[in-house]
Amino acid sequence: MEPVTVTRGSGPLVLAVPHAGIWVPKPLHARLNPCAESLSDTDWHVDRLYSRLVPDATMVRANFHRYLIDANRDPEGHSLYPGQNTTGLCPVTDFDGNRLYREGEEPDEAEQAERRERYHSAYHAALQAEIDRVRAEHGIALVYDCHSIRSEIPYLFEGRLPDFNIGTNEGRTCARELQAAMEEVCRSASDYSTVVNGRFKGGWTTRHYGRPDQGVHAIQMELAQSAYLQSEAPPFAYDEAKAERLRPVLKSVLDTLLAHLRGLQPG
Question: How far apart are the C-alpha atoms of 146 and 202, rounded to whole Å?
């Protein structure tokens, strides 16, 4: 299993997909609790949802599951949301607060370090290489971090999550006009609800790479899975009809961001 798949495009857009992978090594399966076997915290089919929306986009996809290691967490293990329930770099609980491992089977520090080197570092090395490449070619880069999540998870947040959850770490990771343009497109889609920097303000990817002053703009989109899945329960099937309604909105988001990005290019 290659840790990362890169589909290279010629434009300035880099789609980061850290949580759509479902590969878990066989020895790890034997250590997991039955509740973990459904891999319920996967960003199901999100790579398929964004596929070919922008023909010249680059996509960097992690093939390993987040239960092995979470490619969107700080590699030093620092919490992105201090004081709030969340999951860690090598998660030991799922999004419902259930223990992932059988008693005594949780990874120790040495195993976590090995996972970090083999998978987390590999993913971010590939992502950094593509960001550097497109910025060298275009003078600017847009990192769009593709995510999805169940719309109701009481352990993580109250109530029901909006359909579109835009995260820019309170406007720090991209130019203001990019955030405003993206929000306008989302709010104009009357069938969907939108929030900016709500429960999800952007994970480690967005916060780490988003350096607008250096020509790298980063935005996270956390989609409610109810917007494109048949059900937010196993087998988490892709709903063609829902997706066909949603994909044009996502295409409009990406096209609008790229149009505004051209105005930010140096020179």
Answer: 11
Query: In the β-sheet with 141-149, what is the strand arrangement from edge to edge?
Result: 4-7, 58-62, 13-17, 141-149, 216-224, 164-167, 194-196
Looking at residue 99, what is its pLDDT? 95
Q: What is the CA radius of gyration of the chain?
A: 18
Q: How far apart are the first and last CA of the chain?
A: 43
List pLDDT tens digits, range 143-183: 999 999 999 999 999 999 999 999 999 999 999 999 999 99
Closest CA to 8 of 60, 64, 63: 60
Contact indicator for 175, 264 with CB cutoff of 8 Å: yes
Q: What is the pTM for the complete model shown?
A: 0.96
Asked if residues 181 and 241 have their Cβ atoms less than 8 Å apart, the reply is no
**Cα distances (Å, whole numbers) of residue 163 to 30, 38, 138, 191, 255:** 35, 23, 32, 9, 19
Q: What angle do CA 117, 14, 5 make, to 5 degrees?
A: 45
For residues 94-98, average pLDDT: 94
Residues 6+ apart with CB under 8 A from 43: 17, 18, 19, 20, 146, 147, 148, 149
